[in-house]
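Morning!

This is the sequence you dropped in the shared folder:
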Amino acid sequence: MFGPAEGDTLHVMSFNLKYASAIGPNAWRKRRPLMAELLNAESPTVLGTQEGLYAQLCDIGHDLPDHYDWIGEGRAGGVADEYCAIFFDTRRLTAEQSGHFWLSDTPEVPGSRSWGNTNIRMATWIRLRDKRTGGELAVFNTHFDHVSEQARVRGAELVRDRVNALPPEVSVILTGDFNAPAEHAAAYSILTGGADLTDTWTAAAEHASPLHATWHGYHQLIPGGPRIDWLLVRGNLTVPAAGINTYSRDGRFPSDHLPIQALLSPGPVS
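The structure's back. Tokens below.
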């Protein structure tokens, strides 16, 4: 679709990996080579992943070139349970700060949950310095609840408040599986209206692919279907292009979600 970023452009991807299973037709050992092919071909500057398990993320780190680093914590604390990990290209970006918070009334308590969350839900964040432009990026990556609308709304409010607490000169990238269709979800309105975040799909000057539902469940793709995975931005960034990657090989997909991608163009740093 895009391949490695060129010039000052940043290539950002959000991808629900589908947690690694050892059994079944879509076991991780069968999907891992496809995942490696896709990620190495695309070489995103920043990659926000959802659902990955620790060993699975270590596999991806091994399969990517050595210039990638990643951060994350299991949603149950430590290495336990699924991650909202963030990978980044250290040739372009330097990590300055990072951390995690849980989508609950006690966001600093690992493994905490509130608001009717079916599972523990969390967000991972990192502040990065762009070696090429000198600008600063704050990347947030999250995975909202798949059942509770209240949990998605309250989670969006918490993420909104964390984004709004940043200095205005820091550009923001938010990646995630939000488990609700973009443009029709209350959480989407909270983030785009309350945090002034822009949807890269709707803002893109060019679409590199047709619209497809971003979750397919290893079944036939759904043209024009709902985008439950979003990539939102704020600040000194424009969106030359966005796309939804439908890569598969021999009828097999790397995940039950399609990765969403955007090219971002940073403006001059004042």
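Headline: The mean pLDDT is 97.

More detail when I'm at my desk.
O.
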